[in-house]
Amino acid sequence: MKTFPMFVRMRDRDVAILGGGEQAAQKCRLILKSEARVTLYWPELDPELAELAKSGRITWNRQIPSVAALESVSLCFIATGCPGTDASLHGLAEAARVLVNVVDQPDLCEAYTPSIVDRDPVVVAIGTEGTAPVLARQIKSRMEELLEPGLGGLAALAGRLRPAAAARLQPRKRRDLWRWVFNGAPRAAHKSGAEREAARLIKDAIAQGGAPAADPGRIALVGAGPGGADLMTLRGVQRLQEADIIFYDRLVDPGVLELARRDAERVLVGKTPGAESWPQDRINQVMVQAAKEGKTVVRLKCGDPMVFGRLEEEVAAIKGAGLEVEIVPGITAASAASARLETGLTQRGEIDSVTFVSGQLRDGDRSPDWGSHLKLGTAIAIYMGVGSAPEIRDNLLAHGHRDSCAVDVVASVGHASETCLHSTLGTLEGDLASAGISNPAILFVRNPKSEAAAAPGLRVAS
Ligand code: SAH
Questions:
Q1: Superfamily covering domain 335-447
Q2: What is the CATH number of domain 14-113?
Q3: Is 271 designated active site?
Q4: pLDDT, tens digit, for every residue of 131-184?
Q5: Which of 110, 235, 284, 376 has the fewest CB atoms nearer than 10 Å to its CB?
Q6: Is the CB of 338 under 6 A from ligand 1?
Q7: What separation in angstroms does the CA of 303 have from each of 201, 331, 413?
């Protein structure tokens, strides 16, 4: 880090702003969030700043400050609106050895203003050392979504009740109390606008010696989407942030796990094909056990838990244990793969229905009859199909489809290794091998109503 982030008390500190137009006003609005004393140095002020000066909230000095005047300020913004003037005024700040920020000239800055998410007294500051302000704004909007507008009020309430908690509770009980406050019923009440109820809950808990005994924890089955964290739903992200423990599949993108709280436990229950370490029964058992211990559990499944996710088995186990379950759907791999191909799962007038079909079945079940789903005017999206490519080809040929019938494959959609392959039934096996494609991949085969729509030329190449 070339810069060091910290929060500085601004009461009784002076801040100088050189400038009187919109750029100066921007800095002024920012710094006025704090308790600093602000002086604007410029011959003229725009109406907003003039009003602030009139109200006495800021001091206005029509002269350019002397070096000596700047020596006593904590921070100096140079924001005249003219880059050339800014650069020459920078010399003054330098001579005064004052911490300086020059608008839009990172090379001249000693201090950078971060992007701020303001839930006063909770403040998130995002800095990029001036390298990528757009990125900082993107991160800021993510944080804005994650932190409810009233969160600062709850933090302030907690701050007021800290002495009472410290006087009555041992350190461990105190930690449990605050975890519960920010994770449990008080936060939920506060978020829904019931601020007095939140305060009452916390005060009662302090009076009664700590957070109430844990109810059985909640379990949420959450769809992680097919890849990158930004393909998750906001509700899924919220559940991840609330989780004490996360049981996740092998195919879940590591970026998704990053969205969870840092102290949340993460348990890989991936079923690597062939490996027996995590049979479904054991997954069900550990999940239920964690919830019974009062933990907030997330079972994070790739794509949409509703699609080839063994959802019914997990739901039955959870309900069988007398616990409640919430299901948060996700984007299934076929949707993301068809988006990648820029070809709809359905196509008006050509493809009226699409079937999601598995390439593998349970041991002992009969091989899936893929061709029976591929009637005229339909498409199939095959999950877990790479290993069964020869059987799929034979089956579709037996149903009268041609060697030349197009097969589009999208592997690892949403991940860095995402690959698209435009192949045909006849060449599929060899094409998959030479492209080095293994699962996870989706295979699309379409049987559109008109020959023209079936022509590979109509499809968008990768
Ligand atoms: N519930 C998941 C599917 C689980 S079955 C969903 O809704 O997507 C596992 C199969 O899903 C993989 O074998 C593969 O066919 C598909 N799949 C999962 N993630 C994928 C990805 N990122 N790219 C392509 N296919 C994927």
A1: Tetrapyrrole methylase, C-terminal domain (3.30.950.10)
A2: 3.40.50.720
A3: yes
A4: 898 999 999 999 998 899 999 999 999 999 999 999 999 988 998 899 899 988
A5: 376
A6: no
A7: 38, 5, 10
